């Protein structure tokens, strides 16, 4: 297969163009590539002649034999053709020039420097790769390395030195891909790109893409986004149009601009109607001035400024022309002078080219247009494209002025001048000074101003008032997204074109018959609704008292033994639950006791410990409530209904919330102790998830091992607090592949389940990528061997250590595998990057190879988050974190959370010994006893204990 410099350069721009040229496809419609080729050829001839004239005649050679360059006396050679063969591919490069640098001394060798010429002032990566291809071909033909080359470019003949060694690898990859492309008898997948405007096959490719309805027709869609849609089975614009679902915007985003929806753009194209999302608003105060600028970006030179000034029904057009770059300042100051003569000028333009023009002129000449406008009491310039983007969707494939204005009914008199083709006309005028060419450019610029005005009028018609034509109705060809209904919505009003169906639908509601029976009665009788008396718990409660309990008097302070001051007798009602062997019932007790004051230790004593602090509820009832709300994730409203229906206890919602808040404060010391145990342990699982705090996104982190669980709240996902919290952690951290964990200074084990799922998804998305499949297959074989050992022997270092040799063998294999595709290369890089974190568990006892413990703990919070529907505040989420941590730790320690919250003297002291199974999970419960500060600082006994019956 023969690969030339021209073929290589064409492939860099577009693979389809490369295939068409190689198969001698006829070009149609675009003369711009011929102009570019002529400019490069002319520039090359001029620069070669300049170099030849500047060199001694005896040091110049025309097409010499490069293989004898060691003994040659020439120092500059031109018009050389080199050939080289790699595998079955023949590389052919036409070198513009080659410079020979002789050896500087004994033991050193001479070397060649390839030179390439290009007429552009700015270089891109493709120019450097093309030079690297020349150098690579030269290197292979001579059998020696070429270290660097030169590119001479631009009006000032700038010389750029390019290091070849950094580009050789990419050149090799491109050559392999070109060989595969040219060997195929069918053209590659057609994908329109930015190079289409400069391509001679533009008309042919656009026609074919339109027939296929290809997604690449949408110019605003990037290649990554297109691949993402393709992976979901969406390949055409029509298919994409059905993916748009109108949704109600959240409150936190209503003041922000709507993001761009490719599916809504496709919907507008399919229905051939203008679609409006949000509330686009164009304000024009004062005299509207539509301006457009023409320039040569390669030179940073602006040669034409057009202004279209509308004052009522009259229109004035100004065209400011610069013959040379020195005249640029002249036309800019003329532009400013015109603005000063207009009362309240309002500048309006289309696109970012004019925005960049205003910034550069202000920096270049020290006076900005914005200062001039503000001095006249007007607003900054308005970019129409910024209003359209994300809010107004025209039924066109792009949002360019050349696409939108024709849909609104405007046509350019000479379409051949559009876009970059005007640059060729400017170069033609500079060469010939033909007045006809100048007039054509000025007319084209004036029509751009007129097109911008037509677009502005269309935007003004979208709201109520048009300052030029008075009040107008909204366009009948416009569709407001807010009026669209979600076709997938299962519930809502039934609407039909047949009114009979709507009446029948009303009769289908479940309470229709019951309501109609009362309405059809000859004598209307209102049904009696039984009055349910629900007494609120308090001083006037009519619930029967189960017992009256009198507490004995205290003779001295139980804390310090000091003398007590007795207060008057107090009577309080205790509302609690009494659990029997096979029953549970309401337990209401009238308690009689005295308050005491100790003058030695300054304590207030006497209140029965059976009362929950700052409440008339008992501890068993509070434990019952916490069990339902925290462990079962039942909302307080439902818990209240359960208490009313089952026990006739009508407790206010604010009372239940207050109990939960008090419990969180009471267990804060227990929470801190569990966190200390985790930080001092030898194993730590970590994971994180999102939580909505009053509309803002925050994060909840979970830290756990086989015994303890702690949830932690942070406002952001940054890992600064992790580095501070885990700075003294000496164990192994098990986590997913979130980048924050990489900066922690401890041994880490990445979750291989996450990795396995990611690799499996990549293989499903790229079923024909053999390089990716080979890497994943090798990993699957390795992991299967390790898991078999774990299943048989458990997580023990002495049995798992033998697999270190298998891991080393795996990495040697994937290093030798051929990775042509980008996905295969990324996959191999991921394994190499995380080598020290994927198999850490092989060198430790009891370290799991997955993060299932953290995933399981996250599910508990996810369940709570789902029930609350995101109605958290920062205070409530922190309270839930404390209680949920205690609850999950009780589960991991084989304790009942309800028993722990009701009985203060109970510690985390399970009876059976823990043994790790093969997957790193518990069998039984730990036999360790938590220290005394881990339990709540209160005491709770059976409701009957310590009471005296009357």
Description:
- By secondary structure, the protein is an alpha/beta fold.
- Among the domains are: 2-183, Lambda Exonuclease, Chain A; 287-390 and 411-469, Nucleotidyltransferase, domain 5 (2-Layer Sandwich), CATH 3.30.420; 752-843, no CATH class.
- It is built from 32 helices and 28 strands.
- Strands 1, 2, 3, 4, 5, 6 and 7 form a seven-stranded mixed beta sheet that branches.
- 27% of the residues are buried.
Into which percent range does the helicity of residues fall? 40-55%
Radius of gyration, whole Å: 40 Å
How many runs of DSSP E, i.e. beta strands? 28
If helices are DSSP runs of H or I spanning 4 or more residues, what is the number of helices? 32
Mean pLDDT: 82
Largest sheet: 7 strands, mixed
> What is the CATH C-level name of the domain at 2-183?
Alpha Beta
Show the helix and strand layout.
Blueprint (H helix, E strand, L loop, with lengths): L1 E3 H9 L1 H8 L9 H23 L5 E3 L13 E11 L2 E13 L9 E8 L6 H18 L5 E6 L4 E6 L4 H16 L18 H11 L10 H9 L5 H5 L20 H10 L2 E3 L10 E10 L4 E11 L2 E8 L6 H13 L4 E5 L2 H14 L3 H7 L6 E2 H5 L3 E2 L7 H7 L13 H12 L2 H26 L4 E2 L3 E2 L6 E3 L18 H8 L5 H9 L26 E4 L13 E16 L4 E15 L4 E3 L13 H13 L4 H12 L5 H14 L1 H12 L3 E11 L2 E9 L4 E6 L5 H6 L6 E4 L11 E4 L1 H14 L4 H24 L3 H4 L3 H13 L5 H12 L1 H4 L13 H17 L5 H19 L4 H6 L12 E2 L5 E2 L27
Parallel strand pairs: 1-4, 2-3, 5-6, 8-17, 9-12, 12-13, 18-20, 22-25, 25-26
Antiparallel strand pairs: 3-4, 4-5, 6-7, 8-14, 9-10, 10-11, 15-16, 19-20, 20-21, 22-23, 23-24, 27-28
Helix pairs in contact: 1-2, 1-4, 15-16, 21-31, 22-31, 24-25, 25-27, 25-28
């Amino acid at each position: 297969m023969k690969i030339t410099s021209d073929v290589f350069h064409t492939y860099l721009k577009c693979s389809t163009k490369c295939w068409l040229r190689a198969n001698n496809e006829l070009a149609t419609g675009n003369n711009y590539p011929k102009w570019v080729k002529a400019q490069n050829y002319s520039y090359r001839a001029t620069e070669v002649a300049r170099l030849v004239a500047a060199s001694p005649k005896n040091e110049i050679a025309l097409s010499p034999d490069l293989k004898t360059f060691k003994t040659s006396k020439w120092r500059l050679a031109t018009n050389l053709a080199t050939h080289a063969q790699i595998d079955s591919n023949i590389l052919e490069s036409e070198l513009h020039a080659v410079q020979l640098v002789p050896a500087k001394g004994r033991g050193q060798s001479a070397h060649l420097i390839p030179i390439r010429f290009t007429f552009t002032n700015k270089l891109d990566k493709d120019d450097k790769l093309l030079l690297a291809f020349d150098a690579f071909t030269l290197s292979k033909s001579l059998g020696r390395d070429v270290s660097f080359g030169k590119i001479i470019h631009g009006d000032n003949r700038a010389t750029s030195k390019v290091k070849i060694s950094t580009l050789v690898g990419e050149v090799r990859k491109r050559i392999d891909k070109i060989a595969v492309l040219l060997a195929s008898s069918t053209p590659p997948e057609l994908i329109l790109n930015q190079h289409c405007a400069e391509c001679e096959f533009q008309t042919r490719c656009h026609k074919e893409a339109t027939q296929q309805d290809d997604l690449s027709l949408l110019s605003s869609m990037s290649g990554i986004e297109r691949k993402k849609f393709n992976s979901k089975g969406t390949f055409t614009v029509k298919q994409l149009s059905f993916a748009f679902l109108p949704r109600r915007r959240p409150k936190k985003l209503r003041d922000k601009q709507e993001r761009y929806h490719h599916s809504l753009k496709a919907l507008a194209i399919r229905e051939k109607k203008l679609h409006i999302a949000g509330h686009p608003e164009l304000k024009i105060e004062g005299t509207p001035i539509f301006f457009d600028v023409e320039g040569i970006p390669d030179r940073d030179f602006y040669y034409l400024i057009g202004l279209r000034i509308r004052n009522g029904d009259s229109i004035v057009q100004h065209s400011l022309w610069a013959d040379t770059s020195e005249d640029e300042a002249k036309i800019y100051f003329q532009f400013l002078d015109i603005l000063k003569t207009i009362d309240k000028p309002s500048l309006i333009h289309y696109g970012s080219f004019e925005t960049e023009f205003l910034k550069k002129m202000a920096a270049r000449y020290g006076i900005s247009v914005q200062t001039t406008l503000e001095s006249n009491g007007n607003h900054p310039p308005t970019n129409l494209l910024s209003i359209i983007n994300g809010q107004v969707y025209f039924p066109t494939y792009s949002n360019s002025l050349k696409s939108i204005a024709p849909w609104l009914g405007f046509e350019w008199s000479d379409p051949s001048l559009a876009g970059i083709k005007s640059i060729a006309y400017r170069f033609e005028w500079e060469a010939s000074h033909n007045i006809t060419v100048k007039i054509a450019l000025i007319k084209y610029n004036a029509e751009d101003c007129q097109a911008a005005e037509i677009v502005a009028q269309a935007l003004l018609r979208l709201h109520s008032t048009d300052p030029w034509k008075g009040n107008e109705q909204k366009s009948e060809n416009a569709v407001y997204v807010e009026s669209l209904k979600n076709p997938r919505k299962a519930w809502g009003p039934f609407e039909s074109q047949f009114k009979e169906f709507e009446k029948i639908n009303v009769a289908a509601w479940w309470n229709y018959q019951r309501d109609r029976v009362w309405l059809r009665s000859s004598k209307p009788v209102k049904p009696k609704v039984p009055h349910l008396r629900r007494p609120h718990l308090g001083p006037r409660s009519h619930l029967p008292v189960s017992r009256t309990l009198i507490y004995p008097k205290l003779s001295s302070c139980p804390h310090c033994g000091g003398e007590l001051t007795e207060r008057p007798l107090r009577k309080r009602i205790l509302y609690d639950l009494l659990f029997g062997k096979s029953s549970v019932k309401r337990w209401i007790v009238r308690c009689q006791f005295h308050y005491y004051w100790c003058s030695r230790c300054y304590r207030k004593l006497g209140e029965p410990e059976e009362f929950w602090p700052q409440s008339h509820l008992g501890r068993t009832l509070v434990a019952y409530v916490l069990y339902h709300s925290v462990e079962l994730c039942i909302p307080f409203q439902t818990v209240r209904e359960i208490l009313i229906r089952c026990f006739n206890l009508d407790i206010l919602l604010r009372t239940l919330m207050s109990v939960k808040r008090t419990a969180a404060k009471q267990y804060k010391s227990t929470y801190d102790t569990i966190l200390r145990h985790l930080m001092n342990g030898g194993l730590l699982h970590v994971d994180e998830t999102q939580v909505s705090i009053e509309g803002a996104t925050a994060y909840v982190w979970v830290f756990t091992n086989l015994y303890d669980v702690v949830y932690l709240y942070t406002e952001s996902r940054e890992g600064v607090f992790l580095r501070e919290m885990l700075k003294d952690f000496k164990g192994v951290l098990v986590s997913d592949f979130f980048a924050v964990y990489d900066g922690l200074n401890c041994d880490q084990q990445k979750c291989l389940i996450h990795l396995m799922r990611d690799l499996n998804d990549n293989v499903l998305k790229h079923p024909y990528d053999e390089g990716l499949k080979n890497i994943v297959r090798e990993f699957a074989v390795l992991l299967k061997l390790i898991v078999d050992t774990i299943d048989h022997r458990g997580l023990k270092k002495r049995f798992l250590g033998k697999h270190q040799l298998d891991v080393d063998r795996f990495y040697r294999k994937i290093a030798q595998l051929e990775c042509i595709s980008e996905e295969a290369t990324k996959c191999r890089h991921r394994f190499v990057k995380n080598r020290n974190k994927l198999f850490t568990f092989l060198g430790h006892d009891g370290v799991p190879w997955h993060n299932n413990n953290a995933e399981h703990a996250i599910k508990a919070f996810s369940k709570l988050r789902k029930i609350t529907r995101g109605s958290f505040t920062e205070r409530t989420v922190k309270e839930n974190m404390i209680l949920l941590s205690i609850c999950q730790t009780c589960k991991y320690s084989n304790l009942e959370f309800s028993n722990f919250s009701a009985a203060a003297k109970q510690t985390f002291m399970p009876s059976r010994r823990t043994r790790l199974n093969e997957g790193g999970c518990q069998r039984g419960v730990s036999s360790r006893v938590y220290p005394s500060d881990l339990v709540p600082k209160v005491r709770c006994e059976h409701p009957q204990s310590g009471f005296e019956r009357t």
